[in-house]
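Checklist before submission:
- one chain only
- standard amino acids only
- sequence pasted in full

Submission:
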Amino acid sequence: MAYSRLAKPFALADFAYAHRGLWTEDGLPENSLAACLAAADAGFGIEFDVRPSSDGEPIVFHDETLDRMTARSGRIEQMTSVELQSIPLKAGSHQIISLATLLSAWPATTPLLCELKIDGTTDPVSFAERVGDMLLDHDGPAAAMSFSVTAVQALPDALMKGQLIAPSSLADGAWFNQTLNALKDTRPDYVAPNVEDAEAVSTHPLSARYPSVIWTVRDEATLHAMKNIADAQIFENLNPGMVKSICGSTL
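Returned file contents:
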């Protein structure tokens, strides 16, 4: 595929990343266009989620179902992209958006960390190829990542890619260990472990060689602690000025 533009690689450590944008419980909703753009305006990159609609369009939404974030019920994968983008988020004046909408509005001054949600009937290979092509056609810094090893392997070679690592406390650590062992084959550009495993991943022989971005930091003490362990941090509901003062002056 020929790209009219090409996503730019970037140094993971040069930014902090707002988890699903700069949202709050009583303000802008998570993964809304306004929350994402608020992060860019504040000098942050963002981590956000995409999952496919029934017609294969990547939709910016975290959950498998609409229930938590809207007044509707139903699975994202069973609804068309047109229908989904007409549904208001619970905050009222904001609607579900597509990846195409976010990319067209993003100022391309700070990075995008796009998490691919692979569950339900989603095919990890075709969805990774679809999202990867869209990100590569973005004129700015962008990367993709997923918990799915298969999806990470299927991302285009020209795109920065990260391997998300599920917490070791889940499934007695089996998923955690399997993902670390798979790094021998996936060879990502970075790894993204949970805060509870930050130190273990930073010293593990298979993952220590990769830059890391930690998720999700929700308090000042953890922000300070992770600065000495991880290359970058994904934070949520923290004062932007405080994040900047701790994470550095490159923001």
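Reviewer check: The first helix runs from residue 33 to 41.
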